[in-house]
């Protein structure tokens, strides 16, 4: 039997290739994404092991506030500690370190690097230091308060040469410097594509942070003691009141790698999740191919049975074939995946992310898991078709037709309906108040039910969808319509991957539309200004607080009010507090105050969101104690509650509270109302000029600002679309494979049609419309399920503040059109093959 | 009726079909010149492998000759490309094969009109009704091939071949898969089409009884025309076959 199975495989190379194709695609995405994320992790690991390569000890503040999104705010330390550390025995050299927000402005007035997305833009210290990785490639280090050194990549991008004047924007505002040097980082022009402006330590401290403060001290030892001993010695010398901690070089390296690693892990998990979805979609294709090939071999298998092969032997022969296909497919998939990931790396390079390449990382785990998963998935997908092949009656050898037994059974109908009913019951229960976590099961049951019912719905729906083709395309359309309905099981198995892909795309689109709608509503309700200055750099440094004050002084402006964000420790949890200026906020930003005036918000007061106040039992008049980023404590009295917490969050404080403190303080936006009677154009021109002078932030009109907020959802949507493309590609290839197999199967019919006068272009039309009908079948069902799924997810996010479901009408039409186009493209090769059928050969095979 | 008084519907001139080359060359047709007359029912007979199907395929534009020419309606087929040949088959030729004659997804009615529909041609409705009536298919029109008996399927095939009023119909062992009663039924329909509708039919057959329905029989052996007979009876055919066999 084994020999027969192998002969069967070798004898039908085309079928082997087609079956393997689905396995190859599925496993290549799996391998590709895993190699890519491993490579990325390794690259950044290397990058950060280099950063502290020559650092033996690292001194920093022990005061830190950890907040949401994995962000933390660490307090700064005094620059005076550097000289203390320098005198510790065993220390060869110590250097202050600052890494803060700074943007280099190009000669055309546009900032270099990207704003908030992609690699960060840094200001740092560039000085002679034994442990430094920066080396001056041209010129010298900055030594005066009006001198700057920039990284080689930025110099190239901005066409700057030594001697030029360079404008740099930092927290405290913008300033012109003389470019005295160009630096390179190890052997790359800039680390990870970030831009760097380097100053001497005094200037960096004063310009980038607060005068006299730095982020950390980098220490290089003389080798006389171990790093651990050196760190302990340093920590022992620094007074406890300075609240510092001292890490060894290895510790800080590990910590940085972990931080980056967890961010990359998230990215990796996202990639892997979507490649698993794609693989699941691929299962349908594999299952379909095995089913079709079992049907096409029905006579052959019946003959084997007739001459004495047992059921088991027939089944086993097919399973052996699936093992071969799984092994071959996943091995090729692995290789293709490695190629895919190097393509992704090349893409990053093209996007100007200059990461020192350390070659692709192909872990043993990737190799093993790709092949094992590919093999298991293939064999599992082949089990049902193989068992069915074994069940073929020996009598079938005598029958002329090799058609699949296509009558969908009663069991299927009841099973499918039951599954859908169960799913809907679970979803209803969740809507009625049951735990949200059951929702997934409800959705799963509805999906399974729909797919089980597929063969029953496929015929009527395909016939319905094929109507226009039959009407407007004459006999070719009639035949396409009949062909798509002639084998409902096959059609529905081909359409299922499309269904899943389209359902996910539709659900994500519906979710995004709802979120965008909501953002729109919220901003329209709460943002009352005519203009806004914003920055994409909301967490690593935003707008200088002085911008709002300066804009407020413009004669064309009625009011300009800055909205800021600070990180605060409350009950030992990091929290974001919104800071406002009560003097100017009225009529610019609406909190929906309840029984309070903005003027009630004195520097020792706090406003709370009404819901938070109720939940935590903090009524007006009660007190809360908070710890600020500079480790000082404040006692605040609740002096007001507000309704609108979507933008402001739960806490609003007066920005005067943190004035003149060492707390990192920047605005995330400035909201502006123009002066009455001044034409819009003049207001805008004045604002534009003022903002440009600052070199930070972006001036937007009310409409632009609101659009931009919802536009951020589009970026995420784009990423998810991109990842879902993997599934769509497999669905697409699935259609191609099925069509090809159908074309092979219908050779005689095609030959007959050609003999009685069907032209090649008519043959193509027939295949094409069959493909389009199949694709639309998946799309229509997918859209229905997707809209339902989207609605359910929006409902589940009710607690997260998402209140209204929006039907994405436009995108739905686009999805239909795309499915139509996908059908057209999938048909190209099979249609061409169909026209190549040799009439005589096909007619002669009686 | 003598051949001289009849118009030629199709013919070959020194037609040869050679498979392979050199030592291994197989002459499926070897210098065959035949004429098929309009309004006549011609049968082609000969032992298996004598080139009957090859001759038919070459005249019908399904296959190409190696040497010589095949002419239908005055047009030399070797001058035509795939598109022209396809149109020729659709408009001027009707086919009846031994089996697998019908498109399984189309109804009997659609199968009958298939060549016309492919050409976007409505056809002559009165004629089509006449054909349908002649082959007794009135109550089977909405059925699909799987719902028809073998004989009914062949009748649909004959009706399809007739529906577009082709210049000539080629039938390759049309009754080969049928029992003798059903076969006789099909043959009398074909006979009727020649007598009453004026069709031209060329039929390949092994069966002397079937051949006896024809006006004229051409005998092939080893790719050559070896004999010819007019107004045949099954007895005469058997006798001739015996002499040829020797
Ligand atoms: N594609 C081919 N390659 C090689 N030889 C071929 C090919 N097709 C036909 N032949 C040969 O040509 C000769 C004529 O074949 P053809 O099919 O015309 O015979 P036939 O008279 O129709 O026979 P039958 O009564 O068995 O149908 C045969 O010897 C056959 O082996
Ligand atoms: Mg033959």
Automatic annotation (TrEMBL), chain B:
PROSITE patterns reported for this sequence: ABC_TRANSPORTER_1 (PS00211), ABC_TRANSPORTER_2 (PS50893)
Protein's name in the database: Unannotated protein
Gene Ontology molecular function terms on file: ATP binding; ATP hydrolysis activity; transmembrane transporter activity
An example Gene Ontology CC term for this record: membrane protein complex
UniProt-listed SUPFAM superfamilies: P-loop containing nucleoside triphosphate hydrolases
Keyword 4Fe-4S found: no
Organism: freshwater metagenome
Keywords of the record: ATP-binding, Nucleotide-binding, Transport
Domain (ABC transporter): residue spans on this chain: 13-246
């Amino acid at each position: 039997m084994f020999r027969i199975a192998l002969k069967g495989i070798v004898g039908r190379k085309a079928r082997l290739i087609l079956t393997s194709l689905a396995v190859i695609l599925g496993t290549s995405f799996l391998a590709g994404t895993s190699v890519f994320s491993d490579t990325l992790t390794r690259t950044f690991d290397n990058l950060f092991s280099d950063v502290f390569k020559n650092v033996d000890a690292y001194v920093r503040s022990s005061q830190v506030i950890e907040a949401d999104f994995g962000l933390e705010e660490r307090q700064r330390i005094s620059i005076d500690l550097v000289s203390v550390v320098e005198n510790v025995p065993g220390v060869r050299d110590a250097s202050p370190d600052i890494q803060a927000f700074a943007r280099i402005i190009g000669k055309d007035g546009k900032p270099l690097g990207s704003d908030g997305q992609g690699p960060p833009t840094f200001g740092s210290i560039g000085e002679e230091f034994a442990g430094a990785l920066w080396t001056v490639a041209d010129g010298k280090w900055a030594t005066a308060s009006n001198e700057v050194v920039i990284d080689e990549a930025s110099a190239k991008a901005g066409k700057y040469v030594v001697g030029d004047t360079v404008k740099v924007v930092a927290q405290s505002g913008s300033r012109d410097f003389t470019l005295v040097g160009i630096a390179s980082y190890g052997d790359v022009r800039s680390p990870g594509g970030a831009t760097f402006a380097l100053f001497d330590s005094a200037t960096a401290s004063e310009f980038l942070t607060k005068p006299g403060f730095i982020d950390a001290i980098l220490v290089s030892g003389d080798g006389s003691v171990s790093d651990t001993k050196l760190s302990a010695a340093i920590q022992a010398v620094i007074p406890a009141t300075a609240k510092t901690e001292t890490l060894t070089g290895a510790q800080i390296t590990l910590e940085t790698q972990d931080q980056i690693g967890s961010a990359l892990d998230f990215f990796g998990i996202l990639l892997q999740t979507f490649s698993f979805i794609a693989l699941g979609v691929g299962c349908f294709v594999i299952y379909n191919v095995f089913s079709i090939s079992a049907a096409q071999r029905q006579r052959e298998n019946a003959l084997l049975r007739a001459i004495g092969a047992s059921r088991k032997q027939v089944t086993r022969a097919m399973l052996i074939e699936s093992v071969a296909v799984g092994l071959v497919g996943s091995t090729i998939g692995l290789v293709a995946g490695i190629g895919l990931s190097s393509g992704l790396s090349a893409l990053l390079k093209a996007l100007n992310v200059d990461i020192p390449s350390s070659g692709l990382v192909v872990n043993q785990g990737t190799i093993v898991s790709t092949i094992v998963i590919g093999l298991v998935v293939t064999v599992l997908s082949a089990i049902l078709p193989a068992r069915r092949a074994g069940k073929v009656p020996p009598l079938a050898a005598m029958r002329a037709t090799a058609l699949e037994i296509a009558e969908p059974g009663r069991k299927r109908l009841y099973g499918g309906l039951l599954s859908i009913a169960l799913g809907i019951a679970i979803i209803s229960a969740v809507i009625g108040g049951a735990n949200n976590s059951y929702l997934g099961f409800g959705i799963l049951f509805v999906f399974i039910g729909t797919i089980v019912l597929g063969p029953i719905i496929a015929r009527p729906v395909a016939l319905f969808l094929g109507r226009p083709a039959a009407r407007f395309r004459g006999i070719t359309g009639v035949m396409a319509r009949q062909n798509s309905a002639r084998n409902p099981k096959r059609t529905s198995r081909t359409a299922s991957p499309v269904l899943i892909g389209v359902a996910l795309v539709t659900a994500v689109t519906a979710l995004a539309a709802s979120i965008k709608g909501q953002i729109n509503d919220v901003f329209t309700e709460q943002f009352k200004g005519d203009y806004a200055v914003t920055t994409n750099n909301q967490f690593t440094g935003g707008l200088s607080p002085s911008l709002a004050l300066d804009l407020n002084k413009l004669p064309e402006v009625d009011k300009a009010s800055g909205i800021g964000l600070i990180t605060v420790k409350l009950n030992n949890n990091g929290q974001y507090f919104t800071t406002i200026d009560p003097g100017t906020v009225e009529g610019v930003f609406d909190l929906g105050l309840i029984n309070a005036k903005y003027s009630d918000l004195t520097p020792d007061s706090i406003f709370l969101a009404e819901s938070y106040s109720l939940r935590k039992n903090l009524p007006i008049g009660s007190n809360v104690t908070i710890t600020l980023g500079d480790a000082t404590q404040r006692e605040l009295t609740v002096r007001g509650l507000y309704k609108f917490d979507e933008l402001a969050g739960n806490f609003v404080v007066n920005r005067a509270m943190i004035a003149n403190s060492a707390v990192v303080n920047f605005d995330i936006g400035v909201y502006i109302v123009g002066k009455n009677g001044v034409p819009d154009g003049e207001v805008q021109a004045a604002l534009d000029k003022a903002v440009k002078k600052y070199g930070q932030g972006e001036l937007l009109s009310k409409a632009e600002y609101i659009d931009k907020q919802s536009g951020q959802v589009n970026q995420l949507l784009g990423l998810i679309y991109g990842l879902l493309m993997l599934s769509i590609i497999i669905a697409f290839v699935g259609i191609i494979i099925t069509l090809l197999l159908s074309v092979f199967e219908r050779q005689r019919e095609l030959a007959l049609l050609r003999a009685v006068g069907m032209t090649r272009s008519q043959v193509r039309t027939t295949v094409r419309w069959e493909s389009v009908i199949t694709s639309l079948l998946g799309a229509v069902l997918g859209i229905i399920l997707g809209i339902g799924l989207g609605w359910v997810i929006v409902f589940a996010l009710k607690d997260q503040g998402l209140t209204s479901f929006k039907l994405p009408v436009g995108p739905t039409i686009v999805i239909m059109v795309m499915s139509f186009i996908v059908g057209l493209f999938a048909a190209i090769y099979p249609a061409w093959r169909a026209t190549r059928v040799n009439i005589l050969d096909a007619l002669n095979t009686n | 009726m003598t051949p001289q008084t009849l118009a030629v519907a199709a013919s070959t001139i020194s037609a040869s079909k050679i498979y392979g080359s050199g030592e291994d060359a197989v002459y499926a047709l070897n210098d065959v010149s035949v004429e098929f007359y309009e309004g006549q029912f011609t049968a082609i007979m000969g032992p298996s492998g004598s080139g009957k199907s090859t001759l038919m395929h070459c005249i019908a534009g399904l296959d190409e000759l190696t040497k010589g020419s095949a002419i239908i309606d005055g047009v030399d087929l070797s001058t035509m490309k795939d598109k022209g040949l396809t149109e020729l088959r659709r408009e001027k030729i009707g086919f009846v094969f031994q089996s697998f004659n019908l498109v399984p997804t189309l109804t009997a009615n659609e199968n009958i009109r298939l060549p016309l529909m492919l050409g976007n041609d409505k056809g002559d409705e009165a004629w089509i009704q006449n054909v349908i009536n002649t082959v007794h298919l009135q109550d089977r029109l909405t059925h699909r091939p799987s719902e028809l008996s073998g004989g009914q399927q062949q009748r649909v095939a004959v009706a399809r071949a007739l529906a577009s009023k082709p210049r000539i119909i080629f039938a390759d062992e049309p009754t080969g898969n049928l029992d003798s009663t059903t076969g006789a039924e099909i043959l009398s329909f074909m006979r009727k089409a020649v007598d009453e509708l004026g069709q031209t039919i060329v039929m390949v057959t092994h069966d002397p009884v079937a051949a006896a329905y024809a006006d004229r029989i051409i005998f092939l052996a080893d790719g050559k025309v070896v004999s010819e007979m007019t107004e045949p009876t099954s007895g005469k055919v058997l006798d001739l076959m015996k002499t040829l066999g020797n």
